[in-house]
Specification:
With 126 residues, this protein is an all-alpha fold. The protein has helices spanning 3-35, 38-58, 66-72, 77-101, 103-110, 114-125. Helices cover 84% and strands 0% of the residues.
Length: 126
């Protein structure tokens, strides 16, 4: 299979996955709003918003390098991926450590209890 054909198939699959993800969010929002109180739904949205922002910050957005690394490190791509995963894991663990050293700073900044902040960081780790 040629590279152009692979790129087209990958683009179609990515587009389909993006629509499916957005569709799932669109379909499940009414269910969540019926099952949760306004306070709970607000806390959930606060959690997911911070998750989106902190994933990029805490993980240093190293996953974005995989696309170019696929071409730059063709023969050593697996070791590159392992290195980036290990480096990201260390960065996340350091952030978790910092959060637990100065919890009041992060509790006030994120407007969440410490247990949810810790769960958020663990969620980002996995």
């Amino acid at each position: 299979m040629s590279d152009n054909k692979k790129a087209v198939i990958s683009g179609i699959a990515y587009t389909f996955a993006s629509f499916a993800t957005a569709g799932m969010a669109f379909l499940t929002t009414p269910i969540f709003t019926r099952l949760m109180s306004q306070t709970d739904f607000g806390a959930f949205n606060n959690f997911t918003s911070w998750q989106s922002v902190l994933t990029v910050i805490i993980s240093l957005n190293l996953s974005a390098t995989f696309i170019s690394a696929r071409f730059d490190y063709k023969n050593e791509f697996e070791s590159y991926v392992y290195s980036m995963i290990a480096f990201t894991g260390v960065a996340i663990l350091i952030f978790l450590f910092v959060v637990n050293i100065w919890p009041k700073l992060f509790i006030n900044a994120l407007n969440m209890p410490l247990k949810y902040i810790n769960l958020l960081i663990i969620y980002i780790f996995f």
